[in-house]
Amino acid sequence: MTLPAPSDRAYVPFVSVATMMELIHAVGLETMLVELTDAIEAEFRRWPAFDKTPRVAAHSPDGVIELMPTSDGIHYAFKYVNGHPKNTREGLQTVTAFGLLADVDTGYPMLLSEMTMLTALRTAATSAMAARHLAPQGARVMAMIGNGAQAEFQCLAFRAVCGIDTVRLWDIDRAATDKAMRNLAGSGLTLVPCASAEAAVEGAQIITTCTADKQAATILTDNMVGAGVHLNAIGGDCPGKTELHRDILLRSDIFVEYPPQTRVEGEIQQLPADHPVIELWQVITGAAPGRRDAAAVTLFDSVGFAVEDFAALRYIRAKLQETGLYDRLDLLADPDDPRDLYGMLQRARAPGRPVSAA
Amino acid sequence: MTLPAPSDRAYVPFVSVATMMELIHAVGLETMLVELTDAIEAEFRRWPAFDKTPRVAAHSPDGVIELMPTSDGIHYAFKYVNGHPKNTREGLQTVTAFGLLADVDTGYPMLLSEMTMLTALRTAATSAMAARHLAPQGARVMAMIGNGAQAEFQCLAFRAVCGIDTVRLWDIDRAATDKAMRNLAGSGLTLVPCASAEAAVEGAQIITTCTADKQAATILTDNMVGAGVHLNAIGGDCPGKTELHRDILLRSDIFVEYPPQTRVEGEIQQLPADHPVIELWQVITGAAPGRRDAAAVTLFDSVGFAVEDFAALRYIRAKLQETGLYDRLDLLADPDDPRDLYGMLQRARAPGRPVSAA
């Protein structure tokens, strides 16, 4: 069948996984991590401009599927993301994602993008953004607890953004640590594989936890966290899923993205609903204090928020305009007369084919 | 750059607008409307099985962008849809949409599809489904008020599903009526263009209203609606946007899809929150009465609900398996080792390109 080609308005720029990887290499991974950190921080700086809502989650026994929308009144973005820790047993990923950027004025999509890769980058960039406001001055050593799909991106973002030079790695599965060591060889980081979480945190000024079990775990106990440490807790991001012992929370200054979501999903689901937390955007604008003193324990209770994906999608769209690295997807019907969708359908019928409606 | 081809797990079946039109013609539009009506009814019949939530709307001065998720615990679906009545002035469509079907067990997408065309079909099929349970016996004449993009699909669905043989058309813009008349010529329907809404409803046993202004309008006044009529009100589907005079509602038996959403968006936003309504699924299962008697005025206060899109996406996926009419979209990263997303990115680097992370 010969169809008239859809018009420009019918096409949505599309970034596949292969194209995203090509784009990351074209920009350079560390450069992209740094630029994404700045892009996300720029959006946090204008936090009140966003229409915010906790993500819309569909929970099942083995995982969760979430939609994460937000808008600044000019652009609208949402991400589809799943979290299924048991997937890795079947050779599937724990987290896959894609996202959309749209024009609020018309409702028309402007970009559809894979976000499995992009979420890995924006999560690392968000952690680094928080740490550059909260970590103790001169921090050089990070403990990386949980060495799965997110680990290398975290390590590289902390190197590029915060000046970390040494990473102490531990995972319950030594093969994961070995994988991260291989991948980070040549990154410029000093890599120290550790035999336990206790060993990994020794001498670390920053402790990043990023484990995947969908349950309340105690990756860190209270005695493992010394004064002056910054905790970057990524894995507790789902109701019933936490990583830190409650006692750690009670002596930490706790920083969060969006309290209504973190209260349900983050480490602080272990605390009363009125336990004081500080919104990260207020630290960035200077409206709230960050680290009080060198001895304070700061905790970024990270669950991932829609504004970070919004920032990442806007960043990618700008890069597409520079690089031309995208495909065009025939996602939108574009009839000559917008009221004549049926006429468009009729005209798409192959000549000589009987009128199906007759 | 030569990349290894993504594996089957990385690909998501994709139905573009062109492919959807090809699929509709391959099946036959009226056949598809009938099959969609049955598919949607089958899901309404097992209504309690669905995880339901009012759609998540981002309102702006000129329109709305909505996400409509639902799940039956086996499959998960959501639709992205906008509504921007002013778009037609710029040659754009009021409504565009796309949707996704996913596997709850893994969170992996199973189908990404255009839904501008598909929403037009499922909306018509849902209207026809309601009418075959609610319209007076032997109804043959429908008034079609509002002759925009949805009009022809409504007329054809009511012909195929309910046995309507005559349509009385009216639109505030005569050009829209002319367009619908041209499109429906040869459909087997007797078409009667009318000079006013009052003229259009004369002798009609079913009145369908489908106008697009984003405001409280009075397309039908109380004196225009006689005893025994079935009202199929589609256009009132947004806070502040209604089509019927309140007095009509007060003497109608009102049937809705999902009360928490319809209370906010439908015609019944004009009524107190405790005004009695009947859930359509209960009529279909026999748990609630439909039409009480020949003189009753029945009103389907239709706003569109996620379960209808779920049904439509499942129907399309089944058709893809029969016809092979789809593309494959590289939407999901699929590393050999699911914990090694970074390794996948590294291996995608062109040989000889410097290590960007170093």
Automatic annotation (TrEMBL), chains A, B:
InterPro entries: NAD(P)-bd_dom_sf (IPR036291), ODC_Mu_crystall (IPR003462), ODC_N (IPR023401). Gene3D superfamilies: NAD(P)-binding Rossmann-like Domain, ornithine cyclodeaminase, domain 1. It comes from the Bacteria. SUPFAM superfamilies: NAD(P)-binding Rossmann-fold domains. Pfam families: OCD_Mu_crystall (PF02423). NCBIfam families: PRK07589.1 (NF005762). PANTHER family: KETIMINE REDUCTASE MU-CRYSTALLIN. This is Ornithine cyclodeaminase.
